[in-house]
Amino acid sequence: MYPFFFYTLEETKILKAGILFLLLVQVLFYPSLQSQNSTSAIKDIVYGETGSRKLLLDLYMPSGKKDPFLIIWIHGGAWRSGSKESPPLGMLPYGYALASLDYRMSEEAIFPSAIFDIKAAIRFLRANAKKYGYRPDKIIVWGSSSGGHYAALIGTTNNDKYFEGNIGNYLNESSSVQAALDFYGPSDFLTILDQSTPHGISVRVPALTLLLGKPVEQVPELAKKASPVFQVDSTDAPMFIVHGDQDNQVPVNQSLELMAAYKKNNLKYRLEIISGAGHGGEAYNKKELMEKMDKFLAEVLTK
After folding, report:
1. How many CB atoms lie within 10 A of CB 179?
2. Pick from 94, 57, 91, 95: which is nearest to 74 by CA?
3. Burial of 12 (0-12, 13-18, 19+ CB in 10 A)
4. Dihedral of CA 84/85/87/89: which sign?
5. Which residue ranges in the chain fall short of pLDDT 50?
6. For residue 186, how many other CB atoms are within 10 A of its CB?
7. Contact residues for 289 (Cβ-Cβ < 8 A; gap 6+)
8. Domains of the chain, CATH where assigned
9. Strand 53-62 relative to strand 269-274, pairing
10. DSSP letters along 59-76, please?
């Protein structure tokens, strides 16, 4: 048996008034509360073309932030796979906008074609900053694995004509970036295989051969050109480097080499070694790490 509750006429009026008040609060305030935690996305923006191929990006804007800094996300996938879909959005709550790119894969065009595409996207995004509502002067690149390699290479080749290409309609815009976030990316193609586990070698040898068009030992000069450690000089963008000490695909020594090159050139950097982390996973999505990146970016972008 369920209990029955009896209310007086006055109690019933008070109860109805309370319910109506709660409904009114929900109608008036819930959409705005919801929007504080939401983002807006613009999909499939064409930033350039190559042949018959349109190069696309998706733009995610944080709610309630005027003129945010822009982070450009470069996906991984051993240089030959992956897409702009489902990028990490962990920095949006900190007030950053994020653009996620598609670019040519290594099976479609060898190095440095993808770098040409990414720099074309930077030029496009800088030229259209007012249209979309973010800052054009301080642009950040972020990537993981092969995307981390590309982010590091973009961060170490500001104003280098070899890497510019001629993709897109904004060739007079700067493709320079003001910070780079490198998550467990390769940095030295001349040492990575000697440092790798058997599993890492089985993944990396065919991937590098596709990227460079030939095995590394057959094109050592091109391999050096594609290696961020050989591009580092005193003019490069600040770098935030993250690597797991149990990565069996990209040895943690690759990030140590990049750190050493930055240190040698007296450049601003931070290296985060994550104990027990492998190649990807939830360890790289934690709030604590996002907070560290936000603090680093605040330091290097507000000077």
Report:
1. 24
2. 57
3. exposed
4. positive
5. 1-7, 11-12, 14-15, 19, 21-37
6. 33
7. 242, 272, 274, 283
8. 38-301 (3.40.50.1820)
9. unpaired
10. EEEETT-SS--EEEEE--
* pLDDT digit string, tens, across residues 223-273: 999 999 999 999 999 999 999 999 999 999 999 999 999 999 999 999 999
Q: Residue holding tokens 């790119």?
A: 101
Q: Which two tokens stand for residue 46?
A: 């064409």
Which H or E run contains 58? strand 53-62
DSSP letter, residue 217: G
| Helix (H/G/I), strand (E/B), else coil: 163 | helix
Contact 147, 76 (CB under 8 A): yes
- Residues 6 or more apart from 30 whose CB is under 8 A from it? none
Residue 214: per-residue pLDDT:
98
Tokens 């990209």 found at: 250
Tokens 């509360």 sit on residue: 33
Which alpha helices (H) appear in the chain, and where do they start and end?
A: 9-36, 113-127, 129-132, 146-155, 192-195, 198-212, 220-225, 253-264, 287-301
Strand order in the sheet with 97-101: 39-50, 53-62, 97-101, 70-74, 139-144, 179-183, 239-244, 269-274
The answer to whether 270 and 240 are in contact (CB under 8 A) is yes
Residue 105's CB is within 10 A of a number of other CB atoms, namely 19
User: How far is it, in rounded angstroms, from Cα 181 to Cα 41?
Assistant: 22
Tell me the β-bridge partners of 143. 74, 182
